[in-house]
Amino acid sequence: MSDWEFGKGKKTCSSCAKPLAEGEYLFSALFLNKPQEAERQRSPDQIGNAEQFLRSDYCGACWESKSQGVFSFWRTQITKKAQPKTPREILVEFFENLISANSGVDPAGNPSDNKLSYINEAMRPKIIYLFSLVLLRRKIFRIKENIVKPASPAGGDNRTYLVFERIPDNKVYEVPEMAITDEELAGLKDQFAKLFDFEI
Ligand SMILES: [Zn+2]
Questions:
Q1: 20 to 30 A from 42, CA-CA: which of 16, 24, 87, 200?
Q2: What separation in Å is there between the alpha carbon of 188 and the centre of ligand 1?
Q3: What is the CA(76)–ligand 1 centre distance, in A?
Q4: Does residue 108 surpass a pLDDT of 80?
């Protein structure tokens, strides 16, 4: 797993090296680094060791200029407490940012005004699926139903969607079911776990 770089939450900015003071926000960003040659040689939905997720932690000032092309991120406030945010809050925030980065368009099809510019990477749906299962296992999500959206001009694609409800506020998320082996899922989870400061 040496292809997966990670850094545990340092309390200094990766860009300007400034130590963060109490009360400041630290932006932990994951970037997807794709070696060009490897990218050309494999099919779009194959996950190999070609992709590297890199984590960088930024101060607020640097985040303004470094957020282009981020895969997803979470934000923590520096406090005297060892764990300013619970893993639950971080996972929910990460998941929300992950899905909001999915298309770059809002539900009405208009370009998103999100200031981040995202790439619709082929592997993003698999990561979304993975994290929906992580949230399910942590009892942050519960399964409401499975639905199939018949192919239609309105956007149906004949695929199965897992419909999750967030506990306790019942916010609903529709996640396309992915054809992914248990082994691949476990491998991805293992690799992602290293990017967080806690077990996922
Ligand atoms: Zn900085």
A1: 200
A2: 30
A3: 15
A4: no
